[in-house]
Structure formats: structure tokens, C-alpha cells
Amino acid sequence: MATTKKSLPELVREAIDxxxxxxxxxxxxxxxxxxxxxxQVECLKEPVREVRxxxxxxxxxxxxxxxxxxxxxxxxxEEMLPPMLPATPRAKPKARRAARAAAH
Length: 104
Prior knowledge:
Elements: H1 8-38, H2 45-80, H3 93-103
Helix pairs in contact: 1-2
């Protein structure tokens, strides 16, 4: 299986996108809770559906904007930041202590 190395800006973008998606879902759940109750009243069913539709569009538009800004910032960061150097493996603490003791 081939793995692709991602840049730091890409990793940050993905994390922010996931966070925005989660926040959007929580936001919708909180706003829909009272609507679920109101929708049980027959004469309110249609108006509540319209309110729900407007809320969904509004919330979706807001979080789409967050994601769009996030993607634009990622592009800018990739242009401005140097590529990350490959990580060097770190020695285990015991190995570092032994290496220091041997050097003295």
C-alpha cells in the first residue's frame, strides 16, 4: 500500500476541516432539538420544516465559508513555508542515557 507524505499545511487543513464538520453537525443537532418537538404539533409542521430548511442552509453556508478560508490559508502556507524535513528517528530514553554516559 502506497502512502503519500502530506505537508504540515495539508495536515492542519484536514484537521480543521474535520473539526468544522464536527462543529457543523453539533450546531445542527442543537438547533434541531427544539424544532423536533415543535414539529409534533400538527399546525406547526410545515412552518417548522421551512425554519429547519433555512437553518440548514445558513449553517451549511457558514461552515462552507470556514472550509473555503481554511483551504485558501493552506495554499498560502504551502507557498510561504519551506517543506518539512523528514523526521529523524529519536533514540529511546535508555539509549540516549547510555550514549551520553559512553561519551563522558
